[in-house]
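User: Teach me something about this protein's shape.
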Amino acid sequence: MAINSVSYNSTLLNQSMLNLRNQMTTLTTQLTTGKKSTSYAGMGVNEGFAIASRSQLANISAFGDTMSNVKVNISIANTALQAMVDIGTTVKNSASNTQQELNSTGQTIAQQTTASQLSAMLTVLNMQAGDRYLFSGGAINTPAVATMDVILNGTTTQAGLKTVISERRQADLGATGLGRLVITSPTATSLQVTEDVAGSPFGLKLSAISSSLTGATVTGPAGTPSAVSIDLGATNPNDGEKVSFAFKLPDGTTESIELTASSATPPPAGSFAIGATSTATAANLNAALNTAVGKLANTSLVAASAIQAGNDFFNSAGTATGGVVNNKAAVPAPISGATLLSGAPNTDSLAANFVAGDTITVNGTPITFVAAGATGNQLNVTDSVQALLTKIDTITGTSTPSTISGGVITLHTDDAANLAVTSSNPAAFAALGFGATATATVPPLRVGGSPLGTATSLISGTPANTISWYTGEAGPGSARATATARVDQSVTVQYGARANERAIRSQVQTLAVFAAVTTLASDPNAAGQVQELSLRVAQNLLPQPGQQKITDIQSDLATAQQAVKDATSRQTTTKAMLQNIVDQTEGVSPELVASQILAVQASLQASYQTTAMLAQLTLTKFL
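Assistant: First, the predicted structure itself:
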């Protein structure tokens, strides 16, 4: 019987070698790729955690890209805002300089410096980050402001600031140059000062009168139009006794004229001569007052007029006007301040009632209706429309109370860009005359009527006849909310800005007015006009209590920047943890794989040697 050699194809040995070769291939691939497997099936039971972790890592990467863009925008915006702060400081210091000498252009060096600073500020406001205009609110593709030349000089068909200042100056000075005041002598021993027209927004407004003149009687301000008077009677005043007149100027400032009785010849400045009789003294007082009022009108009033013209032109105050609505009385009539917010049929109440639980939200602050016992930002459903208007004004902080007349409600605001009023009860809100949302309009104001010296009203400019200095988005709501970004799963930052925000607008306005005003060197009051204007410019560039400052905008952006920084820190930690999960699930240790390869190589080599020896085995060799 013959004995055959051991077969090379022995199933057991062959399978063992194949397993070793497969193991070697797998280990070599792991060493090359650093991964356990090239397929999910080979990753093990924890691959589900790795897949979820990889998804979160992708989100973190996307958040990282967003945060990079946000940080760039905030950084550029903050640099721009700091430049504005520095510009304001430069102009304030320049305007505060007591050396206000006029040059051949009718301006001071401080005014010319301000023109260059205004140009720089407008350039900053039109700054872009990438293709986004930073100070245009939601209109990211639109420049925020017009050029300095257009703002100051207008166009061929549209008035600029210089025109508006000139018109307002003529209206404030009046035809006689006395600030729209009329000075008369009702009797031989008296004089009276009267505003020329009741309700006119122009000129000097009487505020008070006081006197220490012996035997004199003062009255007012009283009457329509307002008037003050002083009657010396039969007694002459004594040397050094005074009479004082206080006036309110268009920009809200006050000025006084104090005149002193004097027996000196000639009487010194700021005084009037004591005559032989009280009749003569009254005539001297009348002449002195005319001179003093003329000087006040042509210095302080001119400066105040320019400032107010700036307010009219750059005006951010606005109104939201509803439609005409009636109550639900038996015979419907226009609603009034006394109309109730809720009432029975056939009563002076709104056509649709507010009920307990309803809200009216003003700039994000809700006014809640309750059945009774209202406190804080609450209203009883039986309160009046006037109570509601007062509550709205308290929230907006307007300096001009909202009104109702002829069934029409007019909401006033000092900052039209931030007025948005909505209600949870659309029917009752409509009964107030408003649609879904009440927002303000912001037209520039011009002097109405001709000739300008006798005009008695302001009218709204139109896009056809007056330029708009701000060209960005001016919708309701917070300027910050015009640019938002999600930087984490539950974190959204707001970093938008508008050039018409109060702090920025106020500085642009102040610089523009200072740069726009020119005087004539031949005018004896020119130096006084510039001096008074400079004082107002310096004052307006100081931080005003209760009003937004440019540094407040910087603080808002700093808060957003800190939120981004905190999110970055959290995501860095989370990213490391998630990457560790992925690495532990899918990754391999090169050192461990290398040692395993050596072990498999040794086993494979031994298997090859054993197989070779067995393949050569015969009966002769076996025996």
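Now, about its shape. The chain has four domains: 1-36+587-623, 59-145+470-569, 173-314, 318-441. The chain has a mean pLDDT of 85. If you'd like, I can walk through any region in more detail.
User: That's plenty for now, thanks!
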